[in-house]
Amino acid sequence: MSSFLRYFALAVCLLFPRFATATEETKPAPDEAKTAGLTWLKLVDAGKYADSWREASTFLKGMVTEQKWADALNQSREPLGLVNKREFKSTDFTHDVPRAPKGDYWVIQFLTDFDGNNAIEIVTVMFDKDGKWHVSGYAIKSAS
Question: How far is CA 11 from CA 5, 20, 22, in A?
């Protein structure tokens, strides 16, 4: 084999994996986002709704006032009671969340026992302008 062919074969072997990974979507590890979501949920669990708004993403704070956020959480969380157990269910990475700007998002689901009532909590965490993960959305739906 000529030296040109050897170098060409070596270049193809070295470059081909890079071409394959360059086309794959690069997504950040979910660990930091999951930690941010759980830390935020502790505020909500403690009834610190105003604090949860202050720790939320810039996007969420621009969409709803602190008072409206606290009122909404009072209406949705208070009737459920205390959290007895919260289990991680799933994470999904996306760049597109309905009615939100494009960005890096982890949608994290937990199966949560609220005083015997099972529910699925959906916590959407976005990579914010400050270079950290912050909650940009929260929803609760029945697990049954």
Answer: 10, 14, 16
**What's the pLDDT tens digit per position in 10-28?**
323 333 333 333 334 577 8
Per-residue model confidence as pLDDT tens digits over 63-111:
999 999 999 999 999 999 999 999 999 999 999 998 899 999 999 999 9
Angle at 120 between CA 43 and CA 48, to 5 degrees: 15
Could you tell me the CA-to-CA distances from 119 to 37, 80, 124 in Å, in that order?
A: 17, 9, 16
Beta-bridged to residue 119, according to DSSP, are 112, 142
CA distances from 135 to 11, 12, 14, 29, 94 (A): 44, 43, 40, 16, 14
Q: How far apart are the C-alpha atoms of 78 and 15, rounded to whole Å?
A: 57
- CATH code of the domain made up of 28-142: 3.10.450.100
